[in-house]
Amino acid sequence: MEIKRIIPPVLILLLFLGSWHLGALWYDMSFLLPTPLTVAKTFISDFPIIMIGLAQTFTAAFTGYVIAAILGILIATVMSLSTVLERSLYPYAILLQTVPVVAVAPLIVLWFGLEMRSIIIISVIIALFPIINNTLLGLKSTSKTLVELFDYHDTNKLKTFVKLRFPAAIPNIIAGLKISAGLSVIGAIVGEFIIGSGSEEGGLGVQIIYAQSSLETSLVMALILTATALGFAFFITVSTIGYYLLHKWHESEQ
Amino acid sequence: MISISKASKSFEQTQALEEVNLDIATGEFISIVGPSGCGKSTLLRIIAGLINTNGSVIKPNKGAFVFQDSALLPWRTVQRNVELLMELEGVDNKKAKAAIALEQVGLTGFENSYPHQLSGGMKMRLSLARSLVLDPEYILLDEPLSAVDELTREVLQEELYDMWSRDNFTAILVTHNIAEAVYLSNRVIVMSPRPGRITDIVDIPFKKRTSAIRNKPQFSRLVNDISEKLRSWK
Hints:
The complex is a heterodimer of chains A (254) and B (234). Chain A is mainly alpha-helical. Chain A has two domains: 33 residues; 209 residues, MetI-like fold (Orthogonal Bundle). In chain A, 83% of the residues lie in helices and 0% in strands. Chain A has ten helices and no strands. The longest helix of chain A is centred in the last third of the chain and has 39 residues. Chain B has 234 residues and is α/β, with parallel strands linked by helices. Chain B folds into two domains: 159 residues, Rossmann fold; 72 residues, no CATH class. Helix content of chain B is 36%, strand content 24%. At the A-B interface, helix 7 and helix 8 of A face helix 2 of B.
């Protein structure tokens, strides 16, 4: 069964790599479009420096992601407490989503310096909204009957939250965290773009800018693939946690 | 005894419930029947204290509310669901009491199952067990059997009757099913809509309830009698 499920996506991958390879040979301009083999070779030869970049980007994105998760769940919880609070805060949560992060990033770097903390802040901004929005949706869609049951037994707000509203919202919280997993990595890369010029060592975003300016296309591609894999790894981790929390009782994981 | 006096309720413009006065004796089983919108569910929630009213409701301290869709927590196992209300009410000795309650409804062996793995009938048994474990003086039942198939429904009616005769609680059942009301109750309260009010109270004279009484001519006479009373208000 497992192998049958793996075959189709692997076939697609091989098809993709094959046409890329043939296309690259056809155009024969390896400085613009290197073959996948060249990219793989670059990945191996530059492995040490790519890993340095990966470690930095991982640290920034992971820190940003964890902060966004905690902050997002807290903000959504506060909003769920009353309609007034929700009405007051929600428009600003939307602004988080609509503000062009790429445009704000330079400002943040101005304020917080050419440092890791600026990158983390940008990552938080971009990852926060989906977590707030999904958590809030979950906290607000508690079954009316169950709320009546808790009310009938004169359960206080805190106990109702802990025993009912929060656990009922976990599927939505996981959904929000899944969306934000990739976004936090994107945020970190954007932050590194703004910070990084002219350094060969640094986060993946910094290295991409550097490799691009020196026309090392195969290195740019190797770095992009590394960043993609990082976001993917975040997603898989959250999905796995979600599966263990939900598969016994929730439709989404059965 | 449960005593309801001058209980009325309006939602915005519409009067959901006109003044209702009703006394229910301790240990009595009454059913409330009526078409949709007659306020029977509102009346039940007024008795429960979930909806406010201008009138007054006097009732014993310890009660339980059984909902239409079982109202189980899907992320909790059967065991943890039986313990839920004891947790909310701060009852001690949960494990032992839960085990007895599960045994009484035939759910021993399902302690580690989740609600979605149970049939509709089993879910309702679990919901009843969760309430009975509180040793309530009265139980309010809001169409508890409407989601199960006809065969299971009759079996559950008999089980519910057994619980009532064993545990001596006062029961107030809201139902659409007239035969169910006649089978279970000492009295059937008939309500009519716009505005919701009590139009008839029918005494059910049967002493013992067994499935045999369903076949008695008197049983079908009572069912017909009540459904005619309901129809006359449409």
